[in-house]
Amino acid sequence: MSKLFKTLGAVWFIGGFIGGVIIHIIMEGNWLTGIVWLIGGAILGALFYTVGEIHEIVWENHALLREVLHRLPPEPGDKKPPLGNSRANLSALKDYKMNAKDDQR
């Protein structure tokens, strides 16, 4: 993908230059239109090429991060503790009596 962006950047840069020259010739000396094509091609070419470079750097960082994470030992907190007996001990509530209160509003 980064090669695609870099290639598109080069194509826009070269296409803007060639288009600017051709437009200048077709428009019979109209420098303003030719310069606009040159600047537009240079800006778009630089943007596409920069996005390609950024994409390449991100993928390199992604690969390095995966390698680092793969080499790290597993943390002791990764394993879940055994649940053991899940029954609640209700013996403390054996003789508990609830008092009804009429303070409800």
UniProtKB/TrEMBL annotation:
Composition bias, Basic and acidic residues: 94-105
Region (Disordered): 73-105
UniProt keyword list: Membrane, Transmembrane, Transmembrane helix
UniProt entry tagged with the keyword Transmembrane helix: yes
Membrane spanning stretches: 7-26, 32-51
Protein name: Uncharacterized protein
